[in-house]
């Protein structure tokens, strides 16, 4: 492995350059006169010296090793890794969108402001909310933003004792984390034998100290919360608010709306549900919608329309303040707006219908070979369990690694945590039946290997450039910098 890494990464030879800089057009300065001496480099940085051709080949080779939705099936449950239409990319690159600056005068960017205003209106209609802000940079920040508005609402109504946020035991990990960052304490509500929120337990934990219930519907088990209307009544009667985690919105577009279920706040992941590309650290977009009584607390400035003009309103005394520089990740918002307009209302509904059909088809194909903890129709995603394979010495992690040999990104594993040896699969609406069948055939083959050749699965992957890593060590002690290798030793990467 060390020799292999050396061949891949140690390309440097003294004197080679892969760039040319323009002639200096500013006066030279003595850095020692303007910077502290310990900030001035005394030696040249030890960077690899390679030609332009070498560096192009190097990064092109790395790029084809990266897995994404454009290169293969990516069934990452609860993350909605679906195809990003290239029309959206073309739109976002139009000069009028790509070359503007947030600090330009309003009269120069009316087209961009109109797009944002229309996107807010579309998202309000899709979610059943009254007002929407595009500021939050991603879903987790959207959660925090929504919770801060709920907190501001309770404080404005002289109820600071409402410091508890109820979170299901199957919730996304960002839910309790966002609650903690917003200054709340999380209270866990159990899942019942149906895979849904235990309504009786919810009634027990809801009370005068309840600020909100955070919920995604369908939930992370891929099941629709059948008691959602009664759950909303329980929380509202207790004086709390209902927060909708929009990570699973791909299952309900055009079919039902959080606002109609009783939710007061909702965030959407435009970089998931509405096809903005995501992964690798961003960018994201997590707009937040609210009902009227929470609208005064929206982040400022608030985008408004006055006659035929669009303007930013900074005079919002109850606002929780700005939550992101400028006005959100504009390029992702442009992509989402393009997607919504090209799909239309009927198209968005079909997105959810096909996502649900694909998930149910794949679930039933896999049912004979894996444990199915909740044997009922699912929504856009479903969970299976590797308990049967674990008895043979093969863990869900092993099966996920083996999937790499078939060219697939593994599904989410070991989440939700209330299902033993869990594998959560979300095929999305954009995958064909042929792809679903090929993926199912691969998992079925792996299941059979667990019985006949368990070592083959336990030692996977076999065909990838890098074999199985020590994931704990890689997470705790990552090597993040380039180091020139000794003449006989490979470089650290």
List keywords for this structure.
disordered N terminus, 37% helix, disordered C terminus, globular, 2 domains, alpha/beta, 12 strands
In words, what does this structure look like?
The chain has about 500 residues and is α/β, with parallel strands linked by helices. The protein folds into two domains: about 1-65 and about 465-493, no CATH class; about 85-460, Type I PLP-dependent aspartate aminotransferase-like (Major domain) (Aspartate Aminotransferase, domain 2, 3-Layer(aba) Sandwich). It has 17 helices and twelve strands. It has helices at about 1-10, 30-35, 50-65, 85-90, 95-100, 110-125, 140-155, 175-180, 200-205, 230-235, 260, 330-365, 385-390, 395-405, 435-450, 455-460, 470-475; strands spanning about 130-135, 165-170, 185-190, 210-215, 240-245, 265-270, 290, 300-305, 310-315, 380-385, 410-415, 420-425. The strands form three sheets. It has a seven-stranded mixed beta sheet, sandwiched between helices. Strands 10-12-11 form a three-stranded antiparallel beta sheet, covered by helices on one side. The longest helix has about 35 residues, at about 330-365. It is globular and about 75 Å long. The two termini are about 10 Å apart.
């Amino acid at each position: 492995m060390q020799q292999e890494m050396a061949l891949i990464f140690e390309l440097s030879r003294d004197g080679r350059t892969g760039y040319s800089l323009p002639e200096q057009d500013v006066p030279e300065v003595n850095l020692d006169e303007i910077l502290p001496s310990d900030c001035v480099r005394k030696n040249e940085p030890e960077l690899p010296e390679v030609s332009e051709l070498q560096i192009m080949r190097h990064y092109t080779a790395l790029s084809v090793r990266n897995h994404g939705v454009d290169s293969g099936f990516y069934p990452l449950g609860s993350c909605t890794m679906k195809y990003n239409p290239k029309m959206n990319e073309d739109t976002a690159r139009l000069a009028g969108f790509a070359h503007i600056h947030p600090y330009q005068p309003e009269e120069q960017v009316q087209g961009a402001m109109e797009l944002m205003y229309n996107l807010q209106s579309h998202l309000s209609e899709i979610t059943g909310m009254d007002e929407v802000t595009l500021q939050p940079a991603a879903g987790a920040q959207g959660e925090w933003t929504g919770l801060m508005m709920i907190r501001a609402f309770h404080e404005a109504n002289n109820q600071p004792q409402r410091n508890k946020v109820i979170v299901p035991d199957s919730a996304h990990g960002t839910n309790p984390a966002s609650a903690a960052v917003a200054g709340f304490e999380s209270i866990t509500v159990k899942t019942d034998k149906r895979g849904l929120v235990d309504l009786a337990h919810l009634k027990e934990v809801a009370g005068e100290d309840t600020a909100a219930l955070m919920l995604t519907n369908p939930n992370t088990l891929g099941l629709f919360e059948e008691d959602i209307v009664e759950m909303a009544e329980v929380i509202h009667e207790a004086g709390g608010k209902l927060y909708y985690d929009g990570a699973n919105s791909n299952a309900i577009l055009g079919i039902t709306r959080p606002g109609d279920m009783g939710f007061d706040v909702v965030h959407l992941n435009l970089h998931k549900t509405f096809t903005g590309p995501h992964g690798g650290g961003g960018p994201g977009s997590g707009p937040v919608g609210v009902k009227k009584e929470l609208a005064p607390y929206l982040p400022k400035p608030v985008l408004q329309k006055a006659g035929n003009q669009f303007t930013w309103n900074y005079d919002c005394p109850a606002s929780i303040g700005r939550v992101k520089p400028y006005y959100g990740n504009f390029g992702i918002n442009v992509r989402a707006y393009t997607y919504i307009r090209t799909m239309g209302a009927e198209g968005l509904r079909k997105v959810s219908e096909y996502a649900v059909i694909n998930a149910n088809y794949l679930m039933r194909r896999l049912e004979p070979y894996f444990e199915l903890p909740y044997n009922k129709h699912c929504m856009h995603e479903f969970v299976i369990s590797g308990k049967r394979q674990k008895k043979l010495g093969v863990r869900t992690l092993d099966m996920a690694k083996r999937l790499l040999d078939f060219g697939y990104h593994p599904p989410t594993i070991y989440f939700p945590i209330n299902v033993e040896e869990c594998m959560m699969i979300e095929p999305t609406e954009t995958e064909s039946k042929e792809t679903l069948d090929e993926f199912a055939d691969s998992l079925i083959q792996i299941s059979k290997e667990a019985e006949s050749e368990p070592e083959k699965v336990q030692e996977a992957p076999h065909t990838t450039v890098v074999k199985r890593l020590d994931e704990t060590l890689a997470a705790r002690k990552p090597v993040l910098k380039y180091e020139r290798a000794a003449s006989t030793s490979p470089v650290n990467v």
